[in-house]
């Protein structure tokens, strides 16, 4: 029998995380989140997360620092942050992006506190 379950989430009503992200559709091994018009500011604390992230920038600009390498993200940019990799980011201009995380970031407190070095 085929799987007929479908997950649909409207971003406007999606649950919001502690850092402003909106949690979109989630499955057993992957989930999506939206960063919508995040304002410019200081760099975020350096972190290592217990999940892998793939992202796509929709608007704005940000700098991603990954293991000491700085990458400029802007509309159309894609990126990967491997699980356990030291990273930080700084938003330079109101930033909108969609990210997929595997396993889901919002499950089992993976998104609650950055794992510090």
UniProtKB/TrEMBL annotation:
Q: Which Pfam families match?
A: Cupin_2 (PF07883)
Where does the Cupin type-2 domain start and stop, copy by copy?
39-90
Query: Where would you find the membrane-spanning parts of this chain?
Result: none
What protein name is recorded for this chain?
Answer: Cupin
Species classification: Bacteria, Pseudomonadati, Pseudomonadota, Alphaproteobacteria, Acetobacterales
């Amino acid at each position: 029998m085929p799987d007929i379950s479908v997950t649909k989430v409207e971003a406007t009503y999606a649950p919001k995380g502690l850092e402003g992200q909106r949690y979109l559709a989630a499955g057993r091994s992957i989930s999506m989140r939206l960063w919508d018009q995040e304002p410019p500011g200081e760099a975020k604390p350096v972190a290592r997360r217990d999940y892998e992230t793939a992202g796509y920038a929709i608007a704005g600009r940000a700098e991603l620092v990954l293991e000491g390498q700085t990458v400029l993200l802007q509309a159309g940019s894609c990126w990967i942050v491997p699980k356990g990799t030291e990273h930080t980011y700084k938003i330079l201009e109101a930033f909108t992006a969609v990210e997929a995380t595997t396993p889901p970031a919002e499950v089992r407190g993976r998104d609650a506190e950055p794992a510090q070095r």
